[in-house]
Amino acid sequence: MDRETGVYQNLVKKESWRTVLTLAYQSLGVVYGDLSTSPLYVYKSTFAEDIKHSETNEEIFGALSFIFWTLTLVPLLKYVFIVLRADDNGEGGTFALYSLLCRHARVNSLPNGQLADEELSEYKKDVSSLGPKSSFGSKLKSTLESYRVLQRFLLVLTLIGTCMVIGDGVLTPALSVFSAVSGLELSTAKEHHKYVEVPVACIILIGLFALQHYGTHRKTQKGGWMSLGGILLCITGSEAMFADLGHFSQLSIKIAFTSLVYPSLILAYMGQAAYLSQHHVLDNDYRIGFYVSVPEKLRWPVLVIAILAAVVGSQAIITGTFSIIKQCSALGCFPRVKIVHTSSKIHGQIYIPEINWILMILCLAVTIGFRDTKRMGNASGLAVITVMLVTTCLMSLVIVLCWQKSVFFAICFVFFFGTIEALYFSASLIKFLEGAWVPIALAFIFLIVMCVWHYGTLKKYEFDLQNKVSINWLLSLGPSLGIVRVRGIGLIHTELVSGIPAIFSHFVTNLPAFHQVLVFLCIKSVPVPHVRPEERFLVGHIGPRQYRIYRCIVRYGYRDVHKDDMEFEKDLVCSIAEFIRSGSVGINGANEDPYKDDDKMTVVGTCSSHTEGIQMSEDDVIVNIDSPGTSELREIQSPTVIKPKKRVRFVVPESPKIDREAMKELQELMEAREAGIAYILGHSYVKAKQGSSALKKLVINYGYEFLRRNTRVPSYALSVPHASTLEVGMIYHV
Contact, 631 vs 652, CB < 8 A? Predict the structure, then answer.
């Protein structure tokens, strides 16, 4: 069993109670790390300036009341009982909601979608009918599909939520660690703690990022409203329950929150309020905070525990940031970055070096620049509540389009939770000059990067689509393509899912020879979290069979792990061999065209997923060829050579029989694989065409080109041997 198959089986296996309880325990650190450290700074931020603690304790009890109802209504009622149900085949987060909407209404931003993608198991899971039952739902679906501006607005709304999550990845570690370290204020001399807190917090943050690769009461009036920005911090981390759903399960997260996290948080806030109400007159320098309520003898142990808890919670936020950036990149909304999988056993544990160091620099800048929890809290609060508002908006569409509920329920959901969140949003936004400008600035920068990259990628694909070569041109060349065909497999990478890319004509007219087997390879993402191994490949012929030209489309979900090159090459060749066999005997729909595609694509799985089909073995040892004998399986073997570089054998099932033409085609494929694989990569230089607006020239010629030059090459080209690579440049005028 390979890693991919094992990962998928782990995702779909039925959970036992032991597994659920284990996941619930593990979620305490990963999912609830940020939420559980909020008592460190909520009261301190609430009573920073806007309201003061009076002798009547009305402000303390009013703040406690707001905290209690906020924790009850938002994390418990909204997320645990409603939003968690809107999972995308077990995955959660902003892009999971967007993915659901893309599959129930044709609003997908990916240009290379196919009807065959809608036949994926996870694509149509939990869908009884693609059309909403209510008349309003049908009208809403039709409106979204008809107006491109609404589709773009939906994408931008999703990207805004995503950018705020990235901003939270900068602000939450700074706030959590600095709040934990602020306990030094009561444990060291007053004249020293100001010079200790910031350096200690920075050292902890540097260590945190360096280790990432290892895997109020209404009497208070206006001041009370402004202090809601501090109370808002009690629900930071609530979105993580939904975003990290893919690592756990609905039931485990619900058990952990309702049985342990929620009551513990309520008791923690009640305990702080009780202590502060009895000990609010100490001295002139008295300030409300978490460590004030900790007995003096226990402050150092509690300080250490708080720092460790802040580190764990911050690490979870950083990992979540990596995950959502990977999703954006997979769906063409973020420049290509290097993704390192830090665990071979735990699905989804990734590390992105470039993003990690950018987050660290920004986090240190926030810590050194602000130097207090008040402004950090204002910044973090605005990022958190913006993500929640985006989730509320997307959920209202999910209720109507995906759950097929009455529009009345969607309106009630938006009105009830939207009103609460809008109140907190306004209280956070009014602190714009006191720190809330930071998440807005960060989100604006990341949003510009995402939009420029997405726009440039879309225009590049449209150019490929409009300038693809006609199949008649290929047929006019004949089986030899008008040039010498030599042994080997030529992999031509393209973004097109149909037709022949224009760059292929450059190859044919400028190269003296070409490989005997040509494969147009398209590696694309689909709007589902995972694609089953048995549905990974779409394979078809381009032109007549004797041309030996194939199209192979490799489909990945936005949470899938891409295989390494050697394993991928084996799966690719094996999938083509299985396609040849299935085309001969008429199985898997090879002789029929269920997708009405011009290239007659057939769904083929990886080697491990079709154990009853063709299997392939490779070795570098010289072995004399004997007759197949009476074995139940017969082998197609290459002729004996003196010193072969690679020995390839296809093991074909004895039954059903395949025809002679298919046997010959398999023989040529095997010989080509033994000769080696050459990677033919097209380097495109995108330029705005003449007559374009100044804005388009700025975006394409400077913005997109800058991002393209300073980001990673496609993942399939990262470790391709240079001796087996042919690169051809081409200028695109879009």
Answer: no
Query: What residues does 331 pair with on adjacent strands?
Result: none
Q: Which of 2 and 144 is assigned the larger pLDDT?
A: 144
Strand runs (DSSP E) across 323-437, as ranges? 340-341, 350-351
Alpha-carbon span 360 to 301, nearest angstrom: 27
Contact 431, 378 (CB under 8 A): yes
Tell me which residue has tokens 């350096």. 199
| Residue 435 φ then ψ, to 5° | 120, -25
pLDDT at 628: 44
- Compute the distance between CA of residue 522 and CA of residue 684 in angstroms, rounded to an integer: 16
Nearest to residue 269, comparing CAs of 290, 287, 255, 286?
290
Task: Evaluate whether 583 touches 662 at the Cβ level (below 8 Å).
Answer: yes
Which has the closest alpha carbon to 425: 191, 128, 225, 664? 225
Q: How does the average pLDDT of the chain come out, rounded?
A: 79
pTM for the full predicted model: 0.83
Per the CB < 8 A criterion, the answer to whether 436 and 429 are in contact is yes
pLDDT in tens, 622-645: 544 444 443 344 444 444 444 446
Strands annotated E in 394-504: 484-493
Handedness of CA 275, 32, 258, 384 (dihedral sign): positive
Averaged pLDDT for residues 569-590:
73
**Sole residue written with tokens 């109802």:** 69
Return d(Cα 667, Cα 636) in angstroms, integer: 7
Neighbours of 349 (CB within 10 A): 17
List of long-range contacts for 65-70, beta carbons under 8 Å, 24+ apart: 65/217, 66/216, 66/228, 66/231, 67/42, 67/231, 67/234, 67/269, 68/266, 68/269, 70/231, 70/232, 70/234, 70/235, 70/420
As a whole number of angstroms, the distance between CA 27 and CA 520 comes to 43
Report the amino acid identity of residue 407.
V
- If we measure between CA atoms, which residue out of 119, 138, 139, 115 comes closest to residue 127? 119
Task: Write down the residue that tokens 């997923």 correspond to.
Answer: 609
The answer to whether residue 365 scores a pLDDT higher than 90 is yes
Q: What is the structure's pLDDT at 96?
A: 85
DSSP string, 285-317: T----TGGGS-GGGHHHHHHHHHHHHHHHHHHH
For CA atoms 365, 368, 372, 375, the dihedral sign is: negative
CB 70 within 8 A of CB 76: no
pLDDT at 722: 47
Quote the strand ranges of 527-643, DSSP E: 537-541, 549-557, 602-604, 615-619, 634-637
Placement of tokens 């329950």 in the chain: 241
Amino acid at 582: S
Confidence of residue 679 (pLDDT cuts 50, 70, 90): confident
Give the mean pLDDT of 12-28: 72
